[in-house]
Write a structure and sequence with these properties.
heterotetramer; A mainly alpha; B mainly alpha; C mainly alpha; D mainly alpha; C: mainly alpha; Helix Hairpins; D: mainly alpha; two-stranded antiparallel ribbon; 3% strand; globular
């Protein structure tokens, strides 16, 4: 039993790693294509049919490019930083139930690496640790822009972690558990959390969604690596595969957040049937698409606007929301 | 088996990280090592079944405390070498080790005499989070609220200290200088 | 050897505490001194959690929570003070703080 | 009725606090007017209570709140308005209202105007507590309160050395007496278990004679201090350093009569111990003639009136001591009116003469100060006891009491004193208002006081005239519901008429003698050269029988020398040396260890860890010692320890 459990876990880990690495690559393709369509361009089209092999070409380029360690950096930290980003992104995946459990060859598979009973807290914590990638990368680089990016990153992450934490408190109070599987069960019985509790769930959902943009560092909150201000921020001095790891981490994060949002608020995989699994994938696809859509549609905000939004708008709303939830539940 | 392996692995890693933290002359190394050590410590908490404490350890220490320290480092421009005068190493090490051993002796003393009884025993069949919640909001409600107030006070203090005008000492200034500051503030 | 008991954790906690004390006494840079105090707090937390586990009593965990809370407030106030000091004296070296001289 | 009680009690306090609000600000009329109005309110409330009591209403007794409750001791803030206290309340509120109004004019130019009214109203409040309290503890609070206010007011012009000296003298002498009073109160509580008047006096009926005697003596010692009886009398004359309204209110009409009030209030006690009563009466008679004799030659009008007050207090004590409590209280009331009037008149004179007090330097002031002259003359007539003014009724009654009780020595002494009283009263009247105009030569320009001051004094004048024949019988009927209703009548009508007319003739003779002697045109300002001034008796009297001198020489000086010895030998050489030694040791230790405080935090941290190691080692050692206690003891016993 224990050996089987071990093997299963290893297999799951490997599968998740592979799938999401690949997804990160394909994600870039989708992003370019979708942005291109929205901007009346063609996007990648030369490598392979519809430019599909562009992903592979990019991968080869990244892997084979020379790994430059500039002088003046703090070498060990400089080397570790991208790994942190990538690995935390995948570590967060350990507590996410990607699909309902299913049977294969008479063996029940739980598509979750570890069903720990503090799943949400764990995800939040790991997302918090994800901050160290940009932070250490920026501080270790011998570059003022990188340092600025690190400072911005730290500020944004700390601030929006508050909003994230507060916004999911109300759903946690409804469910009474920190496990994502329990969330799914609850929503199966009581309907989606978005529509629960006279709009409290909806407000929490919106807040979490907004915070998700900041947590992943996507437009319109793309200021820790804002091209027109601070070049590539913490990534300025990186090249080759190290830069690629940052890249994979960012896209993996986007996918995980896209999983977490429906799991938390939109009913997850439902009753566990094939239909439910497909529905979950559909929701994930929508949220991933939404990230790209927003990038095409909206400009970036200034850092001060971002902090203003966090501390003076979102956080008060989140606190009031929690109070409302508590009052209504009483 | 797993538990022993995990314990020794993490014990080694934690000790190593903390050792780096206190000995390295690279401030960034110290920061990274400390953050890593904090995360490794949370591993002990998970091993010990204190899941919630472990999560809190990661969220608070790694997510907030260390990030603040990182801010401080950027602010004070101490991301590289730190020049420090060195004292007598033997005294330092000797004192620390002796005191540590004494602390262990004192910790161990009640266990030798078996004087400890579980005041708030863990409930069977309930997750650690629930368990913690029960005790925290019943038996330890007052300390919890006091801690909350303390955090609030600390927050206000931090804001005020790091805020404007705190670099100037009003007590050391002349009246004219204070007046000048006030007029500048108004205009 | 393979059975991990309370004493293992206490010894670990002691080792970490000693490391922290070394840091406290050795460091002259205030920021790094703060790091050392964090180590002290964490080492004690391990002992608390271990005792809590082996005696089946939640009090130890509660104490660990409060220690974390104290650490958080300490950072807020301590960093604020450091910033003030740095603004005035442009350094955070412990040896320059000698106005308490008797 | 309770509301009136509270109003009467607390209106002065409100006034005091109101005036105190302006304590630090410059002189404002409002600080004088409001307390005066509030005192008027208090007076009206007292009048309502009086009417209530006179018309046969119940005694008003309230318990405001618990003050002390520990073990067996239960003392409430209780207040009672009965026949005795309502009399005192009327006297206090009436005289103080008038004095307040008068003081608005009198203190017109004083810098401490606001402060003065704060003190004065506070005094009235304390006095009200004193008279209204239903237990000894409350009485003692009021007792100390009036003492404090008296101290504040005597020393009101604190920049004058003599004023502060007089204030301290009064305060210290009163403390000595208050110790006696306190012992008396302790004895009361010790023996009766309560401090409430009714409970205590009821319990006293069962106590043995000796205990009661001690209680009576100690309580009377308190009364002696407050009422300035011999040998604690010297402070009263010196207290005239205070502003004149203060003298009128405190040192004539109210506070000094507190002793009499105490004796009257404790009549049930003193009725049980007649020998103490006789002692009181004898002392009273002695003080009466003793003080009157000193007043004969004094050259300070306020002191003369002060001695006269002393003398009259002696009369009151004589009456009270003989068991004629209602007579004592009646004389107290009548005396309050005309003595306050006399003082206020003296105040007018002082005002006119720029605070000059020597009557020899005045003369002929009657021309410019007609109203004051009439008032003071009438007050003096009342004091002298001429029919039909107030003094006649009360004072004559005291003489009758002494006569009827067959205490003929006391009677003779008091009769003589009556003559002396008439003489010295008209001596100063003659010197001030009649005879040659001596002040113009000395550069004074006297003027009459403000109109409203005179108007304010007029109620006193009216009362001084009519208090006797209109009030005596209603008063008697009212007050004897509580006090022993002994009627004092000389049985033989012939004797009565001979006594009365004889007394009157004696007094009138004394008045004429005074006028004849002091209105002559060739009277000069005494400069110590005349034959009379070198007379032995004159010297004895002007030096107050050398009693202050005696105190100074045989009490103060030895005490001072003793203190000096103690200061030099014990305080400096032993106590100071010890304290300094300790301080020096600490200082030396600090100096030698200050190197540790290098100001370097890192070093401090190391020291901290070293200290922690030491403490932890101690903890471990002790822990081990406790754990292996048995083994250690076995080893020690093996070693033969």
């Amino acid at each position: 039993m224990e050996v089987a459990y071990l093997i299963e876990t290893v297999i799951k880990v490997v599968v998740i790693l592979l799938i999401f690495s690949a997804l990160a690559g394909i994600g870039t393709y989708f992003e370019r294509k979708i942005l291109a369509f929205m901007q009346r361009r063609l996007g990648p089209m030369n490598v392979g049919p519809y430019g599909l092999l562009q992903v592979a070409a990019d991968g080869i380029k990244l892997f084979t490019k020379e790994d430059i360690i500039p002088s003046g950096v703090v070498a060990p930290i400089f080397k570790i930083a991208p790994v942190i980003t990538a690995s935390t992104a995948f570590m967060a995946a350990a507590a996410i139930p990607f699909l309902p459990q299913f049977e294969i060859f008479g063996y029940t598979v739980h598509p979750i690496v570890a069903d720990i009973n503090i799943g949400i807290l764990y995800i939040l914590g790991i997302m918090g640790v994800g901050l160290y990638g940009p932070l250490l990368g920026g501080m270790a680089s011998a570059n003022k822009f990188s340092l600025l990016s690190a400072a911005r990153g730290a500020a944004v992450f700390i601030s929006y972690e508050v909003v994230t934490g507060l916004s999911i408190l109300a759903p946690i109070m409804m469910v009474g558990s920190l496990s994502l599987i329990d969330f799914n069960e609850y929503q199966l019985e009581n309907g989606w959390i978005v529509f629960n509790l006279y709009g409290v769930g909806f407000i929490a959902f919106i807040l979490f969604w907004i915070a998700a943009f900041a947590e992943t560092g996507r437009t319109p909150f793309h200021l820790i690596a804002n091209d027109h201000e601070i070049i590539d921020g913490f990534g300025t001095e990186y090249s080759g595969m190290r830069w690629g790891l940052f890249f994979i981490g960012e896209y993996a994060n986007m996918f995980f957040i896209s999983f977490v949002i429906p799991l938390l608020f939109l009913g997850g995989y439902g009753d566990g049937s094939i239909l439910g699994a497909l529905a979950l994938l559909g929701k994930v696809a929508f949220f991933f698409f939404f990230f790209l859509w927003v990038r095409a549609a909206w400009p970036d905000v200034r850092p001060d606007q971002l902090m203003w939004l966090c501390w003076k708008v979102l956080m008060p709303i989140a606190v009031v929301n929690i109070l409302l939830a508590a009052i209504i539940m009483i | 088996m797993f538990e022993a392996i995990a314990f020794y692995l993490f014990a080694f890693l934690t000790a190593l990280m903390f050792f780096i933290t206190v000995t390295t002359s690279q401030a960034l190394h110290a920061l990274t090592a400390l953050a890593a050590g904090m995360i490794f410590i949370s591993a002990f908490f998970f091993i010990l079944g204190a899941d919630f404490l472990g999560a809190v350890q990661i969220v608070v220490y790694s997510g907030a405390v260390m990030a603040l320290y990182a801010f401080g480092m950027m602010f004070f421009d101490t991301t590289r070498d730190v020049k420090e005068k060195q004292g007598n190493k033997y005294i330092i090490a000797g004192l620390s080790i002796v005191s540590a051993i004494l602390v262990v002796l004192i910790f161990a003393a009640p266990m030798v005499t078996d004087n400890i009884t579980a005041l708030y025993p863990m409930t069977e069949g309930v997750g650690n989070t629930q368990d913690v919640g029960m005790v925290l909001f019943t038996k330890y409600l007052v300390p919890f609220e006091v801690a909350a107030v303390m955090l609030l006070v600390a927050m206000v203090a931090g804001i005020v200290l790091a805020g404007k005008k705190m670099d100037a000492s009003l007590t050391e200034m002349s009246e004219a200088e204070i007046e000048e500051i006030n007029t500048r503030e108004l205009s | 050897m393979m059975e991990i008991g309370l004493n293992h954790y206490l010894v670990l906690s002691t080792i970490l505490f000693a490391i922290g004390l070394i840091g406290v006494m050795k460091r002259r840079n205030l920021l790094l001194l703060f790091f050392a105090t964090e180590i002290l707090l964490n080492s004690v937390n391990i002992a608390f959690a271990a005792i809590s586990h082996y005696y089946g009593d939640l009090t130890g965990q509660m104490f660990a929570f409060f220690v974390i809370a104290i650490a958080a407030s300490e950072v807020a106030v301590g960093l604020g003070l450091l910033i003030v000091w740095h603004k005035r004296h442009s350094n955070i070296d412990l040896d320059t703080m000698s106005t308490m001289k008797g | 009725m309770e509301i009136y009680l509270y109003v009467a009690l607390f209106a002065p306090l409100v006034g005091s606090l109101f005036a105190a609000l302006f304590g630090a600000s410059p002189r404002t009329k409002i600080a004088g007017i409001v307390p005066s109005l509030l005192l008027g309110v208090s007076f009206i409330a007292s009048s309502v209570l009086l009417k209530h009591i006179v018309s046969g209403g119940d005694i008003v007794h309230v318990e405001m709140m618990t003050w002390m409750a520990t073990g067996d001791l239960y003392i409430p803030f209780g207040f009672v308005v009965d026949q005795i206290s309502v009399t005192m309340m009327m006297v206090v509120t009436l005289v103080s209202t008038i004095v307040h109004v008068y003081a608005i004019g009198y203190m017109d130019h004083d810098k401490g105007f606001n402060r003065f009214f704060s003190y004065l109203s506070a005094f009235v409040f304390s006095m009200m507590i004193l008279v209204m309290s239903d237990n000894f503890a409350g009485l003692f609070i009021g007792w100390e309160g009036v003492g404090l206010c008296s101290w504040l007011l005597i020393g009101f012009w604190y920049h004058k050395e003599s004023a502060t000296w007089a204030a301290n003298e009064a305060f210290i002498m009163n403390r000595i007496a208050d110790l006696g009073m306190l012992i008396g109160i302790f004895l009361v509580f010790w023996n009766t278990g309560t401090l409430q008047y009714d409970g205590a006096f009821a319990a006293m009926q069962n106590l043995d004679q000796e205990t009661l005697t001690w209680i009576g003596i100690f309580l009377f010692i308190g009364a002696m201090g407050k009422s300035a009886q011999f040998p604690l009398h010297t402070w009263l004359a010196d207290a005239m350093e205070g502003p004149t309204p203060v003298s009128a209110l405190i040192h004539a009409a109210t506070m000094v009569t507190a002793g009499v009030y105490l004796v009257v209030r404790s009549n049930e006690l003193y009725a049980l111990i007649p020998h103490v009563g006789l002692f009181i009466a004898s002392l009273g008679a002695f003080v009466a003639i003793f003080a009157a004799s000193m007043a004969l030659v004094n050259r300070d009008i306020k002191r003369v009136i002060a001695y006269s007050t002393l003398s009259q207090l002696g009369y009151m004590f004589a009456a009270a001591g003989l068991g004629a409590y209602w007579v004592a209280l009646f004389h107290l009331m009548a005396h309050a009116f005309f003595k306050a009037l006399l003082f206020l008149g003296a105040g007018n004179v002082m005002h006119a003469m720029n605070s000059e007090l020597d009557p020899f330097k005045m003369g002929g002031l009657g021309k410019t100060m007609k109203v004051s002259m009439i008032m003071m003359t009438l007050a003096s007539v009342a004091l002298a006891g001429i029919f039909p003014l107030a003094g006649f009724f009360s004072k004559d009654l005291i003489l009758e009491v002494a006569f009827v009780d067959h205490h003929f020595i006391i009677y003779t002494v008091l009769l003589l004193t009556a003559g002396l009283t008439a003489f010295y009263s008209f001596r100063i009247i003659a010197l001030i208002f009649h005879g040659e105009d001596r002040h113009t030569a000395l550069g004074f320009h006297p003027h009459e006081a403000y109109k409203f001051m005179l108007v304010a004094m007029s109620p006193l004048l009216i009362l001084a005239i009519i208090a006797g024949f209109t009030m005596k019988m209603p008063y008697f009927e009212m007050v004897t519901q509580l006090l022993p209703a002994t009627e004092y009548h000389v049985h033989s009508a012939t004797t009565y008429w001979i006594m009365t007319i004889g007394t009157q003739l004696f007094v009138i003779l004394a008045i004429f003698f005074a006028y004849r002697k002091y209105m002559s045109k060739d009277i000069r300002v005494p400069d110590g050269t005349s034959r009379m001034e070198n007379n032995f008796f004159y010297k004895l009297l002007i030096n107050q029988y050398y009693i202050p001198h005696f105190y100074e020489e045989y009490l103060v000086k030895p005490y001072r020398e003793l203190s000096t010895i103690f200061f030099k030998q014990i305080d400096q050489k032993i106590v100071d040396a010890t304290v300094d030694g300790i301080a020096n040791v600490l200082l030396a230790t600090g100096e030698s260890t200050r190197v540790v405080q290098s100001g370097n935090l890192s070093t401090m941290l190391k020291w901290m860890v070293a200290g922690m190691v030491a403490l932890l080692s101690l903890a471990v050692v002790f822990g081990l010692a406790v754990k292996y206690l048995d083994e250690i003891q076995a080893i020690l016993s093996g070693l033969g320890v």
